[in-house]
Amino acid sequence: MNLKEAIEKAKADSKKRNFVQSMDLSINFKNLDFNKQENRISAEVVLPKGRGKACKVCVICEDEMATNARAAADKVILGTELEEMAKDKKKIKALANGYDAFVAQANLMPLVGRFLGQALGPRGKMPKPVPPSADLKPIVERLRSTIIIKVKGKNLPVLHAPFGTEEMATDDLVANATAVLNAIKGKVPSPQNIGAVYVKTTMGPVVQVTEGF
Q1: Which of 74, 25, 47 is nearest to 142 (CA)?
Q2: pTM of the model
Q3: Which of 143, 167, 189 is the last residue in one of the domains?
Q4: What does the angle CA 208 – CA 212 – CA 213 come to, to the nearest 5 degrees?
Q5: Separation of alpha carbons 115 and 137, rounded Å
Q6: For residue 33, which phi and psi values (nearest 5 degrees)?
Q7: Do 22 and 124 sit in the same domain of this protein?
Q8: What's the rounded Cα separation, in Å, for the pair 69 and 132?
Q9: Which of 33, 63, 79, 184 is 20 to 30 A from 130 in CA distance terms?
Q10: Are 73 and 131 within one domain?
Q11: Is the Cβ–Cβ distance between 208 and 196 less than 8 Å?
């Protein structure tokens, strides 16, 4: 079945849960040696129809950028607060888990790496650096629709990527999934390296896409 049919079936076959499930893509690769660094896939993908759920963004900046940041983001942390925050490991962990994306004033990145790097790095949430004069509103809005796709050691040779939620219209999910697949195609030597594509809800059965990808 094609991508649209697979998404429709995955939604139909999934039992109702007491939370809104994500829609996930699983892509199997073939004839690709992931032991070679050049074959490791990592990319930011802007989902054209959004993520289907709220995405919380935190900005780390200096005082002069704070007003701009508060108007655009969900949370603002001043550079002068970083060292004190780093003393509370539980607070740092809660911050890393509580926000989907981070932005930091470029000159503060060394401090961010020093005080927050151990929490944000492993979660793939190191901040996007921006200059002090940046207009944060479009940057934050773009991040709200952006996912990071990356192959990880324990999952090789499979890549997993969320592309929306079960509540989204099927055509919107098709557009998002297509954006993810196109990004992946641009990262592999040949489309033939994509062996199989599957879609599922968070806790639902897997449905294979057999054509059109």
Answers
A1: 47
A2: 0.84
A3: 143
A4: 70
A5: 26
A6: -85, 100
A7: no
A8: 10
A9: 184
A10: yes
A11: yes
Mean pLDDT, the chain, whole residue set:
92
Say whether both 68 and 133 belong to one domain. yes
Determine phi and psi for 189, rounding to 5 degrees: -60, -35
Range of the domain at 114: 57-143
Q: Is the pLDDT of residue 116 over 90?
A: yes
Mean pLDDT calculated for residue range 86-114: 94
Angle ∠(95,98,101) on CA atoms, nearest 5: 90
On whether both 162 and 132 belong to a single domain, the answer is no
Residue of 107, 113, 158 lying closest to 134 (CA atoms): 107
User: Is the bond preceding residue 48 a cis peptide, omega within 30 degrees?
Assistant: no
Number of domains observed in the structure of the chain: 2
pLDDT tens for residues 101-112?
999 999 999 999
Distance of alpha carbon 78 from the chain centroid: 24
| β-bridge partners, 27 | 159, 197
